[in-house]
């Protein structure tokens, strides 16, 4: 199946170190060679790069490793196709608009006998089960809380009350590990495998599992910086990663876990 990478921070941070190791899994240290993508939130807009080539062969992936885009929320994905052909339209992360915000989603898994009734503005462009699930989530949030912000923008609690039972319902169709963000909060669900860690003061050195590369974060991070990194499997071999429980729903905000259940 695919691989997920997410970052949620309290100050704009670049993901070049984590992405350098993550991209190796796109055809070199693992077999996920059917495309990749990454989304950087800047305020409530997202700068998204997609490529149907393997990450280890992609000039665009090399560009991302060298270009330190600073963001509060990042979602990246490398694909092992299960549904839908290898093409740009089937690469994650996917994006949609809701309440004047850009929402970004990526999924790891394979949903069987999943054919939700979709209507209105949330229709898939490609053929993946992942994009269908994302459209269903967006449609459900819009139906539950309205299509605009004229009356009241839904709180994170409102969103959780709709989103959590929805993702659990989707997960009944098969593995559904997912990351979802609106540029402020990062929502995650662990169906089979997901890990996370928080880097904060006192910072130390980290060494990638997939490449012989290290960074001493005490030399580059500020005292008040805090960064949560979420990944399908740990990206470093000298840090303590917390394994999420099967069926665990989490919300990250400003580099830490806001909710876990």
Describe the structure.
The structure is a single chain. This protein has 261 residues and is α+β, with helices and mostly antiparallel strands. It has one domain (3-260): Aminohydrolase, N-terminal nucleophile (Ntn) domain (Glutamine Phosphoribosylpyrophosphate, subunit 1, domain 1), CATH 3.60.20. It is 19% helix and 34% strand. The protein contains 4 helices and 15 strands. The chain has helices spanning 16-24, 59-66, 129-145, 156-170; strands at residues 3-13, 36-42, 45-51, 71-78, 94-98, 101-109, 176-181, 185-190, 195-200, 205-207, 214-216, 226-231, 242-243, 248-253, 256-260. Strands 3-2-4-1-12-9-13 form a 7-stranded antiparallel β-sheet, covered by helices on one side. Helix 1 (16-24) runs antiparallel to helix 2 and helix 3 (129-145) runs antiparallel to helix 4. The longest helix has 17 residues, at 129-145. The radius of gyration is 17 Å and the shape is globular. It starts with a strand and ends with a strand.
* Percent in helix: 10-25%
Mean pLDDT: 93
* CATH hierarchy class name: Alpha Beta
End-to-end distance, in Å?
24 Å
Note the total helix count.
Answer: 4
* Computed structural class: alpha+beta
* Annotated CATH architecture: 4-Layer Sandwich
Q: What coarse outline follows from CA principal-axis ratios?
A: globular
| Radius of gyration from the alpha-carbon trace, in angstroms | 17 Å
The number of domains: 1
Q: Describe the largest sheet.
A: 7 strands, antiparallel
Order of helix and strand elements from N to C terminus: EHEEHEEEHHEEEEEEEEE
> Low-confidence runs (pLDDT<50, min 5 residues)?
none
With strands numbered from the N-terminus, the spatial order across the biggest sheet is 3-2-4-1-12-9-13
Tell me the β content: 25-35%
Q: Give me the CATH fold name.
A: Glutamine Phosphoribosylpyrophosphate, subunit 1, domain 1
Q: What is the number of E strands?
A: 15
